[in-house]
Design goal:
3 helices, alpha/beta, Ribosomal Protein S5, domain 2, six-stranded mixed beta sheet, 131 residues, globular
Length: 131
């Protein structure tokens, strides 16, 4: 994420060359993470998703976290980098305005699971929390 805590993300729509711009902001305050923890949850093989509808029309916000159970600092940072990348590639087409999302890394699997499987898991998890 940029120093402002927000990032412009671009996704190309299939065979069309038109780009869709979605603004995602980062969750930075602990209170935002705690509120998201009280929302909807969906677990997958590689990560855990928490989502909360804020009830406004603001941009979707995303946060990432990995506990020490994931491993040492190197392992936690690698897991968070992978979570950030699947979010960057997947959320522009599936996130909803006014929602907060938190991706939580899982021990040993977030850093090693197949990347495409993690992207597919995120799409399924988002569909379940939005249902």
């Amino acid at each position: 994420m940029t120093s402002s805590g927000a990032d412009d993300l671009t996704q190309t729509a299939g065979a069309q060359s038109a780009a869709v711009f979605v603004r995602l902001e980062g969750l930075t305050r602990r209170a935002d993470f705690l509120r998201a923890a009280g929302g909807r949850r969906q677990g997958t093989a590689g990560f855990h998703l928490q989502a909360r509808n804020r009830g406004d029309d603001g941009p979707a916000r995303i946060g990432f976290t990995c506990s020490k159970k994931v491993g040492n600092a190197v392992a936690r940072n690698r897991a968070k980098r992978r979570l950030r990348e699947i979010a960057r590639l997947t959320l522009p087409g599936h996130a909803r305005p006014g929602w907060d999302y938190v991706l939580i890394g899982r021990a040993e699997t977030t850093a090693t699971l197949d990347f495409e499987q993690m992207r597919a898991d995120l799409v399924r998890a988002l569909a379940k929390v939005h249902a």
